[in-house]
Amino acid sequence: MITPNLIEAKKRSQRKSIVKDAEYKITNELKQLGKGKTYFIKTYGCQMNEHDGENIKAILEDLSFKEVDNYEKADLILLNTCSIRENAHNKAFGMLGRLKHLKQTNENLIIGLCGCMAQEEVVVQEIMDKYKFVDLVFGTHNIHHLPQILNEAIKKKELEVEVMSIEGDIIENLPVKRDSKYKAWINIMYGCDKFCTYCIVPYTRGKQRSRKNVHILKEVEDLIKQGYKEVTLLGQNVNAYGKDLDEDYRMENLLEDVAKTKIPRIRFVTSHPWDFTDQMINVIKKYDNIMPYIHLPLQSGSNRILKLMGRRYTKEEYLTLFNKIKEAIPNVSITTDIIVGFPNETEEDFLQTLDVVNKCQFDSAFTFIFSKRVGTPAAKMKDNVSMDEKNQRLQKLNEVVNHYARVANEKYLGRIVPVLIEGYSKKEDDMLMGYTDTMKLVNVKGDSKYIGQIVQVKIEDIKTWSMDGSIVN
Ligand code: 5AD
Ligand code: SF4
User: Fold this and answer.
1) Residue whose CA is closest, atom 4 of ligand 2?
2) Taking the domain 6-162, which CATH number applies?
3) Among all ligands shown, which has an atom nearest to the Cα of 274?
4) Ligand 2 touching residue 236 (CB < 6 A)
5) Distance (Å) of CA 440 to CA 322, 352, 365, 422, 466
6) Considering only 119-123, 283-287, 293-297, 363-367, which range has the smallest mean pLDDT?
7) List of residues 6+ apart from 107 with CB closer than 8 A
8) Whose CA is nearest to atom 16 of ligand 1?
């Protein structure tokens, strides 16, 4: 049993990450582990976690498990969890609670928990104390070891925990079962060294480790051969890509090299304003296949709160960067993340946030109430702001954010825009759906033969969070 430790996870070793291209291996015997059995995986949280889920699915299929979409029919249930806020925690524990009765009717059912929550000692302790029916827990650095962990859990019939707290290495030979045939996530780096004071990610995902460009570019080339139209380069702080590598090769170089592969669409998330360079802006501007869409988390508009958050920029610096991007890249859409109710946030601080939102008029924003994460510096800050007040601020902020989201969408009415058609709309049966270059969701009237293609769509109706249109090519 290897259990997590957040204090260990906070340490940053000087050691360079080792790239391992043969670390994931399974014996012929293990390849039969899931023969005749099914699995169900539920993923919570960010795109990183979604992509980990795609790796986990492929590993389980290497072990001969077959995917089912109803957990009540599965022989193996995995919860791939998220730690970012309290409600993500609660959702995962709520789901675990619902699984308990299944174990009573099927004693061979295997239940596991992985993802960011597995990296927290409070969570693993709670599982050992209160959720004794759980069979395995594995961490974000242990995914490649899943076959062995699962095998142990099945053999021993008791809880198997394997969670490394120091950062793992870079495993290059994980299989992947992608959810889409047209859009792919590509990790370009793991972990984060920014340590914003409210954030648990640097603990659950460890030290920043960038993948080598040759591996990333090879992955893009392979995806092009398979017919993929879009890649999203993933990292907690992608602009810092390369800072931990020996070569002088940074995000702007990587973006340029990925653009030169001619993959039709390139996106990247998430950017931290601190590392967003002029060179990056120039590269985005230069290449048509780098999409004019940037997610640029603001978090707060108050300089006092930004300092307490450890964000390393001021309101003025954020606005300067924002304006520079808007001026350089025509048609760019910019979205953001905002936290309200950080410890002791005053009304004046909140008004500063609203002021930035009014100035930037974001295309959309993810808004959150500050959530205490055990082990982070902000969790120890005294707080005299009531939950009522925080809720009111969130509501007020959402009204303003929604207003600008609609205003941004209204500018599209009557325009013809490129949309990658991904499949059928979830809401309307006979409609297709896809995203514009600027990441606007469009429900599209048109023939299903266009699924997987980038088509020209005339926008005919506008809503706050989506638009309707028809294919015109
Ligand atoms: N409380 C509330 N929101 C948080 N985020 C990260 N940590 C917290 C927290 N403790 C938000 C930030 C980040 C997004 C992914 O989640 O806005 O950009
Ligand atoms: Fe968390 Fe800040 Fe790193 Fe983003 S940049 S993952 S908010 S610590």
Assistant:
1) 236
2) 3.40.50.12160
3) 2
4) yes
5) 19, 27, 13, 13, 7
6) 119-123
7) none
8) 84
Q: With a 6 A CB cut-off, is 353 part of the ligand 1 pocket?
A: no
In angstroms, rounded to a whole number, what is the distance separating the alpha carbons of residues 205 and 191? 5
Q: What ligand has the least distance to the C-alpha of 83?
A: 1
Say which amino acid occupies 36.
G
Query: For residue 76, what pLDDT is reported?
Result: 97
Domains 6-162 and 170-410 fall in the same CATH topology: no
For the 170-410 domain, the top CATH level (class) is: alpha beta
pTM above 0.90, yes or no: yes
pLDDT at residue 9 in the model: 82
pLDDT at site 446 = 85
* Ligand 2 near 339 CB (within 6 A): no
Ligand 2 proximity of 237 Cβ (cutoff 6 Å): yes
192 CB within 6 A, ligand 2: yes
Q: Residue 203's pLDDT is what?
A: 92
According to the CATH classification, is domain 416-471 in 2.40.50.140? Answer: yes
Atom number in ligand 2 closest to CA 200: 1
Q: What are phi and psi of 268, to 5 degrees?
A: -150, 140
* Among protein residues, the one whose CA lies closest to atom 2 of ligand 2: 196
- In the reported structure, the alpha carbon of residue 54 is separated from the centroid of ligand 1 by a whole-number distance in angstroms of 24
Say yes or no: CB of residue 199 within 6 Å of ligand 1.
yes
Instruction: Kindly list the distances between the CA atom of residue 57 and the CA atoms of 68, 87, 175, 318, 388, in Å, as whole numbers in the listed order.
Output: 11, 25, 9, 39, 42
Q: Among 90, 199, 237, 372, which is best to mutate for testing ligand 1, by the most ligand atoms less than 8 A from CB?
A: 199
pLDDT over 90 at 167, yes or no? no
Q: Is 434 in the pocket of ligand 1 (CB under 6 A)?
A: no
Candidates 50, 237, 311, 368: which one to mutate for ligand 1, based on the most atoms within 8 Å of Cβ? 368
Residue-wise pLDDT tens digits, 404-452? 999 999 999 999 999 999 999 987 778 999 999 999 999 999 889 999 9
Domain spans of the chain, in order of start = 6-162, 170-410, 416-471
